[in-house]
Specification:
- The complex is a heterodimer.
- Chain A is an alpha/beta fold.
- In chain A, helix 9 crosses helix 10.
- Chain B is α/β, with parallel strands linked by helices.
- Chain B contains 27 helices and 44 strands.
- In chain B, strand 23 and strand 24 form a beta hairpin.
- The two termini of chain B are 64 Å apart.
- The chains are: A alpha/beta, B alpha/beta.
- At the A-B interface, helix 10 and helix 13 of A face helix 17, helix 23, helix 24 and helix 27 of B.
Chain lengths: 431, 1015
């Protein structure tokens, strides 16, 4: 343990006495980097003991046990540290919210039920104080997602080391987000809700029908190239129907997920479920229909009091076993720094450690549509790399010592660590 | 017989009145009719419009089986009544000359029922409808010289508000009731209730006792005042009201006249009825009663059978409703998923409640209250009998018990001379399936419930047609709706239609014959006669002679087998125990033991548990009779103690209506059924400090519990514990995030928060100095305890300025702030905290959820720890509490605290903060055996709690958990099939729906939230 702390202090030591405002985005990679003597977790299940990872101009150039470090670049002897692909937070309000209770800092929910032309990237605040606290836990990419209404708009994937949102954009408008009305009858107080007026299933299905009607109209509109009046909402659906964009449907229970499947079928869309609390009950259907799942954080309570007490912990393993494509998610924005530990718990409850890693790296990249350029430490992909002194998925040993985004070594300091140093100084307890 | 049949007596008149009532509720004409129609003597003060019509109303009911009371049944007896009262009942009762004789041969007479929980004749009350964005209301809106709180309505008298309501009366009479207690169901103290009969007469005549009982509840009803807005607030309000009423007896000049308190005192002479909604509320009510020397009569909610031993221990008489939950439609499995096993089991078991009370020897009455339709009463009562209630007890619970409970057994409840002539005439034993309730007499007035079938005409008759043949027919079927068959070569169905004494017959002589004989005639005593048309169309004369009774199929002979019911779990949850577990001696062998003592971490070590305590720690300890658990490769730690928890709390975690609510107590509202107790045991938690929320600067008193799954509320509590109270600072108490309407309650700034404390403790200090005869104030009592180091503070806090402030306030009043909880800027003032002697309970890494946590850092715990502040990591969250060991591990990650010290932050340090470190928090001989056996290093994310032991009882065992899952699945399958069967039978079902579980964080004002579905 002492060793971990030592290396952390070393890394942070470089930046002592800097304020958050001076944590600069890194410059482009100039020289090749060779990470040697490392335990390399490729992200696809493969582990290379005592391996070397080389990257240049932002791309991974070689990875393996028998790579010789060239003399053209920087060689870093990791002395047995663990090298991972950067963690990807697939669905988050990062950069759209700074303080959950302060309205002026919230840019995540727009007014209106159907807003397909809304784009999260527009509000993404690269100067949020939260971002740096994620990087220092190995989270390097994030799917920044709008909320609100039913069709809330498009998310974009950003990389977490940027001057502005244009720099941050990693894959813009990767998915359109559909928040399914909750299709569960709820007991109100002691009696049952009854009658069609407050039958949530009925009102929910009506809303779903409205969305379908909108999709059908949009499809029809897009068949005809000329329009006297341009409909921006319809226009913004073009990429979805061309399958350049995915449809992410936020839903939890069986009936909602059945409807998600129905959307995929009727409109021939690339659909992923976001949430999927009960996805373990219909793994076969999901697999059969090629529906991916961005799963709720394992650190949740079971849906029902009779559910297995560890159900949320083991849902990932059930999806894995059934062959459903899934990745792990976490709620909120500042919470994303714990995403690696969510994977750790999924591993305690049924995944192998490497499967758990894939659940926050490669699988997320696949679902977000960026797996060709990231998600694993394979040659040709972006050098998005997190290095940990110990097992990154276990908070007991996860100490991120270095991280790279597109080959750029990023600053791992953050506001919180700076405050730590400030008060270590006050009390004279610095080590 | 004749007379009863032909007489147009009170009943017909009453029916006319009922009809008139519906149309002209208040007409004068009607009033006079009512008076004239009642057999009890008319009131002399009332003038008569028309000719006076005085009547004695003397009747004799002969040859009846009279059930005088549940113990006494008289055969072939006579009941004599006069002027609305019973004169005599017995085999030898003399029939007065002026009596109208009613032949009741074959019939049964019972005392009519008494319901002591109704709102009959009271105006409907509506819940307080303060609009959601109305400003807060601090005082009562009731006009007049009444008390400060609108929910204390002790001055209300039901007698003064009562007016007869014939349609309601009729429906209750049809269910068998004759006398009821009526009360306005409104408020925490509801004032007095009156006993009235259900006769259709003037209010003056039906009122038997105008002040017969006083009522209470945990429901503020129509009150629009904010206080109280939690269950614990209701309890505090009622307790304070008892104290205030006591004090008011001394006529304190400063109070002036307080009619509410005056009435509250006057009402104490009466039977005290407490309405509750469930089993735990019943125990809460009883506890208040114990405190103030009151034995409440408890109107139950319906699930009390789930804790029958605790109900018996209250020594209360209960009033049991028969409103059993309806069957749930589980046809659609995707919807059925949202019905919990506990709900299904309650559906199955609820009708067994009265039987369970009888078996446990708990006195009880039965009420028709809570039924949507009084028509379902008798059916549900029969169901309760089918589920184990004896018929005799059922009758007692409807007659004598309620009457004696209200001390009106001298008037109603049995058929003895001098009592009101309130009785039922039935076709047979009252509770049998096919028995018909013909008449319900109230105060000597006849009310016909069912006219048809008074005469049982069933039997074999020989019909002789003149001219023509004879034919044998059988009249069978039910007594009220008989059918007819012709007994010729074949048995050919015919028709019989009875209208009063007129009868119409239609006879076919052969199967498939379209020709019928049609007869019309009059029913006589033993023979019928009349005229008709034969198959050829010729006019005939006919007579029917009764030859013999039909061979009765003994329909009562075989009682249906009592239904097979599933077991009751403790607690009543899918994961509950079949039988509560017992303490046992346990030897854990060869584990890595994290002692939290100077010995540190011991490898390959044994720990012996005896009688709930840690007996010995060492190598190769002999097991003796102890159960041996192999700890090889596993880690043993002290149980996790969550210093900041809100699990297992009922109906509100915040009494948020006032800035200072030191009088409310979390300990009053524990919910032992909360599945989160079990879930947290699975994460190694053995004790939780349950806190009031953070809505006000001085919140409520907290409660330390041990996670003893299945025990009742009182047994969850840690006894002999230094009591604590929750304080709060910052945004929540100044209502920063409550929206624009909440800008009225003091304080709205951190400056004001300080003054709330200065004011509260100044008042407490002055209060303490007051001499004898002072008004005991529960709020100030708690504050005085703080001043005297008899109660300790755990204070929700965030920013450094306010932390500093509270320590200054405490210093100036010479007490110490024991614990700052959340304390996310504790790292900024750790030196001051250490100097003051305050400890800290904090989150590992929460931040950014509101403005005041912008400087929160995950290194907080490490800094405070290093500066020397006793630091704990806590949850404030039912999910996170399941993995507090992982949260502790983050303190290693952020700030480099040693592993052993990190583990102490969720075990020994919270024990220190709660002053129980002499009993729990480390593995040391003599301490409580609260232990966790981990599969792995206890700070690792890969560690699972395999066994969690509390007081030497294995409360959670991962192997046993697997069996429970199977039991849940099996029991759900069984009940699902049973419910599907109900639906198939045509029983009306209700939609399967999701029921929220109560779950709180400290900021929750109205109910908690459900993780996962966000419902």
């Amino acid at each position: 343990m002492k060793k971990h702390i030592f290396s952390m202090v070393l890394v942070f030591g470089i930046y002592t006495a800097q304020a958050q405002e001076t944590i600069y985005p890194a410059k482009s990679q100039e020289k090749p980097v060779y990470l040697t003597n490392a335990v390399i977790h490729v992200g696809n299940g493969q582990v290379i003991e005592n391996g070397t990872l080389a990257f240049a101009k932002g791309k991974i150039t070689a990875v393996g046990a028998n790579i010789s470090a060239g003399s053209d670049g920087t060689v870093i002897d990791l002395k047995g540290q663990h090298v991972y692909p950067g963690i990807i937070a697939p669905e988050t309000s990062l950069g759209l919210v700074e303080f959950e209770s302060v309205r002026a800092t919230i840019d995540v929910r727009e007014v209106g039920e159907i807003n397909p032309s809304i784009r999260s990237i527009i509000s993404y605040n690269t100067d949020s104080k939260v971002i740096n606290t994620l990087r220092s836990n190995g989270v390097l990419l994030a799917g920044v997602t709008p909320e609100g209404g039913i069709i809330s708009g498009s998310s974009s994937v950003v990389q977490l080391d940027a001057w502005n949102w244009e720099d941050a954009a990693y894959k813009t408008d990767n998915a359109l987000h559909f928040y399914m009305p909750r299709l569960v009858a709820v007991n109100n107080g002691r009696g049952f809700s009854s009658g069609p007026a407050n039958d949530p299933l009925k009102t929910g299905l009506e809303k779903v029908e409205n969305v379908k009607a909108f999709f059908r109209e949009a499809q029809a509109y897009l068949q005809e190239p000329k329009h006297a009046a341009t409909n921006i909402k319809f226009e913004s659906m073009r990429r979805l129907f061309n399958r350049e964009q995915k449809l992410f449907i936020h839903c939890e229970v069986i009936k909602e997920m059945l409807i998600a499947i129905d959307f995929a079928k009727e409109f021939k869309l690339d659909v992923a479920i976001v949430g999927g609390a009960d996805s373990w009950q219909i793994t076969d259907l999901l697999k059969q229909n090629n529906i991916a799942v961005i799963l709720n954080q394992p650190h949740s309570l079971p849906v029902m009091q009779d559910d297995d007490i560890d159900q949320p912990y083991k849902t990932a393993a059930q999806l894995q076993k059934a062959g459903v494509l899934y990745c792990l998610s976490n709620e909120g924005f500042w919470q994303q720094r714990n995403l690696g530990f969510e994977a750790g718990t999924a591993s305690t409850y049924g995944l192998t450690k490497e499967e758990a890693l894939s659940a926050v790296t490669l699988n997320a990249a696949k679902i977000l549509g960026i797996d060709k350029i990231t998600g694993t430490l394979e040659t040709g992909k972006d050098a998005n790399i997190a290095i940990s002194a110990g097992d990154m998925l276990d908070m007991k040993s996860s100490i991120i010592t270095r991280a790279y985004i597109q080959g750029r070594e990023i600053n791992l300091d953050n506001k919180q660590h700076q405050l730590f140093e400030r008060y270590e100084r006050k009390y004279g307890i610095a080590q | 017989m004749k007379t009863a049949f032909e007489k147009h007596g009170a009943a017909l008149l009453s029916r006319g009145v009922a009809y008139a009532l519906r149309r002209h509720r208040s007409s004068l004409l009607l009033l006079s009719l009512l008076i004239a129609g009642s057999y009890a003597h008319a009131q002399e003060t009332y003038p008569v419009n028309g000719i006076a019509d005085p009547k004695d109303g003397c009747f004799a009911f002969t040859h009846a089986t009279i059930v005088k009371d549940a113990q006494t049944t008289l055969s072939n007896a006579t009941l004599v009544i006069r002027d609305g009262k019973v004169v005599d009942a017995g085999p030898a009762a003399a029939i007065p000359k002026d009596a109208v004789v009613v032949d009741c041969k074959g019939k049964y007479i019972y005392p009519s029922f008494v319901d002591i929980f109704t709102t009959y004749g009271q105006a409907e009350t509506r819940r307080g409808s303060g609009s959601w964005n109305a400003p807060p209301q601090f005082l009562s809106n009731t006009k007049g010289a009444y008390g400060w709180n609108q929910a204390i309505k002790s001055e209300v008298n039901a007698a003064a508000l009562f007016s007869t309501d014939e349609s309601k009366a009729a429906s209750l009479r049809e269910a068998g009731f004759g006398t009821v207690l009526t009360q306005q169901a409104d408020g925490v103290a509801r004032g007095t209730a009156a006993v009235v009969t259900l006769a259709a007469a003037k209010e003056n005549k039906v009122m038997i006792r105008e002040r017969a009982a006083a009522g209470y509840s945990f429901d503020k009803g129509t009150s629009t005042q904010n206080y109280p807005n939690s269950a614990m607030g209701y309890i505090a309000l009622l307790r304070q009201t008892y104290l205030d009423a006591q004090w008011y007896k001394s006529q304190p000049a400063r109070e002036g006249v307080n009619l509410s308190l005056q009435a509250f005192n006057a009402n104490q002479q009466l039977p005290q009825i407490f309405e509750v909604k469930d089993k735990w509320d019943a125990l809460r009510a009883d506890k208040i009663g114990d405190e103030f020397g009151v034995q409440y009569i408890i109107k139950a909610g319906g699930n009390e059978y789930q804790r029958i031993a605790e109900m018996a221990a209250t020594k209360a008489t209960f009033i049991l409703p028969l409103s059993f939950p309806g069957a749930i439609d589980v046809e659609d499995p995707a919807d059925a998923r949202f019905v919990s096993l506990a709900e299904m089991k309650h559906w199955e078991l609820a009708p067994s409640q009265p039987g369970a009370f009888e078996k446990a020897n708990i006195p009880f009455c039965i009420t028709a209250a809570d039924l949507k339709d009084a028509k379902t009463f008798m059916g549900n009562l029969r169901k309760a009998i089918e589920y184990g209630l004896s018929e005799q007890k059922a009758l007692e619970a409807l007659t004598r018990t309620p009457a004696t409970t209200l001390k009106i057994y001298d008037k109603v409840g049995s058929l003895e001379a001098g009592k009101l002539a309130n009785f039922l005439i039935t076709s047979g034993p009252l509770f049998q399936e096919n028995t018909v309730l013909f008449q319900n007499w109230v105060q000597g007035n006849r009310y016909i419930v069912k006219q048809d079938g008074w005469n049982d005409i069933r039997g074999i008759y020989t019909i002789t047609l003149t001219p023509g043949n004879s034919v044998t027919v059988e009249v069978k079927g039910s007594v009220t709706d008989p059918s007819l068959s012709v007994l010729a070569k074949d048995t050919v169905p015919g028709k019989i239609d009875i209208n009063g004494k007129l009868v119409t017959l239609s006879l076919s002589m052969a199967k498939n014959s379209k020709k019928t004989v049609r007869l019309s005639g009059l029913i006589g005593v033993n023979s019928w006669s009349g005229t008709g048309v034969d198959t050829a169309g010729a006019v005939v004369r006919w007579e029917a002679a009764f030859s013999r009774a039909a061979t009765a199929k003994a329909d009562s002979a075989k009682k249906p087998a009592p239904p097979a019911l599933g077991p009751i779990y403790f607690p009543f949850s899918g994961y509950g125990w079949d039988k509560l577990p017992q303490q046992q001696d346990i030897l854990i062998k060869n584990a890595t033991v994290w002692t939290n003592e100077k010995e540190g971490k011991l490898e390959n070590t044994d720990v012996l548990i005896r009688a709930g305590k840690i007996a010995q720690i060492g190598k190769s300890i002999a097991a003796g009779n102890a159960r041996v658990i192999d700890g090889t490769g596993k880690h043993l730690s002290a149980g996790i103690i969550d210093e900041h928890s809100h699990i297992a709390i009922s109906n509100g975690v915040n009494e948020s209506s006032q800035a200072v609510t030191a009088e409310v107590r979390i300990g009053d509202v524990l919910n032992p059924d909360d599945v989160n107790i079990y879930r947290q045991l699975s994460g190694g938690v053995t004790a939780s400090h349950l806190l009031h929320g953070s809505a006000n600067p001085i919140g409520g008193q907290s409660q330390l519990i041990k996670l003893r799954w299945g025990q009742s509320a009182e047994d969850l509590k840690v006894t002999n514990w230094d009591p604590f109270i929750k304080f709060a600072l910052g945004e929540n108490v100044k209502q920063s995030n409550w929206g624009d309407r909440n800008t009225v309650r003091f304080p709205q700034t951190r400056m004001g928060v300080e003054q709330v404390y200065v004011d509260a403790f100044t008042r407490a200090r002055d209060y303490e100095k007051q001499g004898p005869g002072k008004r005991r104030d529960l709020e100030l009592d708690a504050l005085v305890e703080i001043l005297n180091a008899k109660r300790f503070i755990t204070c929700h806090s965030y920013v450094q300025s306010e932390i500093n402030m509270l320590m200054h306030v405490a210093d100036s009043f010479h007490f110490r702030v024991n614990t700052f909880t959340h304390i996310l800027e504790g790292y900024k003032v750790a030196d001051k905290m250490k100097a003051h002697g305050a400890g800290a309970g904090t989150f590992a890494d929460w931040w950014a959820y509101k403005m005041e946590v912008q400087d929160a850092i995950p290194y907080n715990a490490a800094i405070m720890h290093k500066v020397g502040v006793v630091t704990a990591i806590n949850s404030d969250d039912a999910e996170m509490a399941r993995r507090l060991n992982q949260e502790a591990a983050k303190v290693v990650k952020y700030g480099g605290v040693s592993e052993e010290d990190a583990l102490k932050m969720v075990t020994l340090n919270p024990a220190k903060l709660l002053h129980v470190d002499n009993r729990v928090g480390s593995i040391k001989a003599g301490k409580d055996a609260d232990l966790v056996l981990w599969s792995d290093h206890p700070l690792s994310i890969y560690a699972k709690a395999e066994k969690t032991i509390v007081d030497g009882i294995v409360e959670f065992d991962r192997d046993n958990d697997l069996q429970l899952r199977k039991r849940i699945a099996d029991e759900r399958t069984r009940l699902t099939q049973k419910l599907l069967g109900e639906k198939k039978k045509g029983t009306p079902t209700q939609k399967a729906a999701f029921t929220r579980e109560e779950m709180y964080h400290c900021e929750d004002l109205q109910g908690g939230h459900q993780e996962g579905l966000g419902l």
